[in-house]
Q: What sequence folds into this?
């Protein structure tokens, strides 16, 4: 099933069969989800970052955890495949179930789903750009997406990153970003460098090749550690649900400065 656009040809192997396997949770097998032993001490909370202005202003037609394929499309997104996975944990290492994990990122051309987050070179119509996953009893989440790339929008250049938000009980409890450990652009990235050094370590993930993975596929493990008050009710019960985007005044500020059109 070739696409008329040769850029897409190398991804033709991600056909419907492959997607079905992915959705059944077979793509990664067991070892990546091996449960860790007891934690001897409290974990370091994952650092909060700004949300940024590009949380989708209109949701894509598909919001599942496979960002490579929109609904039952045949042509997958352009980009190097990445399995982003991990666990949502309390500071004591307890899994947080029923947490909604959302991610959003630019496509291979540097464009967000957000209608005002588009690179002039265009938009990959096959990239979902946004996805959601609900953690199970082990706190695990999984996305299939692409390795993030750098981008420049509104004169701001960013190192590669995937935005990630966690909600519980209908409330956003963590807004952060996943950056690529070792990427040279990290040294000049304003968001990363704006964090204290110990916090920086909590937003970096290795995008390496998993053992036995198909060529061109990478796997990034990113465990999310929530603060104590972030997810427990007064009765100590952990709850799930998705909160609203916390938004920013970014667009108002930009408009006031007359900078709200691209380039
Ligand atoms: Fe971003």
A:
């Amino acid at each position: 099933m070739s696409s008329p656009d040769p850029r897409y040809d190398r991804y033709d192997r991600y056909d419907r069969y492959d997607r079905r396997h992915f959705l059944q949770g077979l793509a990664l097998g067991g070892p990546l989800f091996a449960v860790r032993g007891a934690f001897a001490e409290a974990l370091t909370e994952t650092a909060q970052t700004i949300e940024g202005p590009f949380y989708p202003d209109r949701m894509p037609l598909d919001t599942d955890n496979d960002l490579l394929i929109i609904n039952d499309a045949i042509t997958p997104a352009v980009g190097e495949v990445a399995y982003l996975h991990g666990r949502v944990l309390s500071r004591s290492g307890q899994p947080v179930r029923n947490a909604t994990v959302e991610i959003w990122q630019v496509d291979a051309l540097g464009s967000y789903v957000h209608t005002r987050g588009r690179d002039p070179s265009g938009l990959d119509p096959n990239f979902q750009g946004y996805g959601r996953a609900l953690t199970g009893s082990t706190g695990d989440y999984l996305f299939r997406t692409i390795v993030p790339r750098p981008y420049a929008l509104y004169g701001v250049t960013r190192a590669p990153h995937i935005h990630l938000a966690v909600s519980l009980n209908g409330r956003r409890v963590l807004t952060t970003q996943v950056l690529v450990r070792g990427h040279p652009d990290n040294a000049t990235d304003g968001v990363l460098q704006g964090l204290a050094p110990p916090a920086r370590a909590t937003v970096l993930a290795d995008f390496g090749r998993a053992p036995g993975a198909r060529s061109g596929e990478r796997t990034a493990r990113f465990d999310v550690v929530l603060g104590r008050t972030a997810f427990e009710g007064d009765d100590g019960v952990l709850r799930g649900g998705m909160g609203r985007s916390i938004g920013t005044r970014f667009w108002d500020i930009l408009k006031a400065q007359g900078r709200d059109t691209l380039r």
